[in-house]
Design brief:
Layout lengths: L2 H21 L4 H10 L8 H17 L7 E2 L7 E2 L9 E2 L2 H21 L10 E5 L10 E5 L3 H16 L3 E3 L6 E3 L10 H36 L1
Parallel strand pairs: 1-5
Antiparallel strand pairs: 2-3, 4-5, 6-7
Helix pairs in contact: 1-3, 3-5, 4-5
The chain binds zinc ion.
Amino acid sequence: MSAQRQAEEAFQQEYQKAIERIRTMPDGAVGWVLRFLQTDLEALTPTEWTLVAFEVAAFVDETGDRYGGMVAPESGWSVEGVPNAKNYQTIPSRKEAQDIQATVLEQLELYWHEGYIAFTFPQMTLVVVSPGSFSDETGTIFVSAKRKAKEFEYRFVHLLAQSGDYIRRCPECAKIYLAIRRDQLYCQPRCQNRVAARKWRESRKTDQKTERRKEDRHGKKRGKG
Ligand SMILES: [Zn+2]
């Protein structure tokens, strides 16, 4: 087996493992995105970073339930996964992934604030393939953008449409999480309990102050009498 072929097989293996990791996340692709957005990429060891880089590549191209078009890469990430890789077999650099984090987090803030956001896709191409090739029932739509990071945003748009109302920031710990219930405010019972405990302590403090004021007044009255 040639060195090139070996590198290609090793890449494919890592790529498949990344797909599997995203698919088996508790909340699937949405869960993966939320974790990715809140990962300090700078703090990862090279080994940890490589796992994430493969996940970013896998997320864009082919994981989870698909909404919207498949991605048919028209551009690659900046790191070659195998020698002379073109569009496939590439993974993002840490800088590329950090830029995605910043862009998507900014869009998310706008979405929370305005209720909508616009993603622009310069030079995006949509290709429809007739039924039979990829699905027996319906045709398949492929999406290609000139910049790889734009393909990530394209995937994110559909995740937002699907789960946007449930993506929230916990007012207690500031973590971005996927709510289970529509009326859920805190990310975990732990945060909710912490807030409840604090409110209870504060109300007790106010009660004690009121008690003391009452006692003071009574004391004064007694003093006068
Ligand atoms: Zn929280």
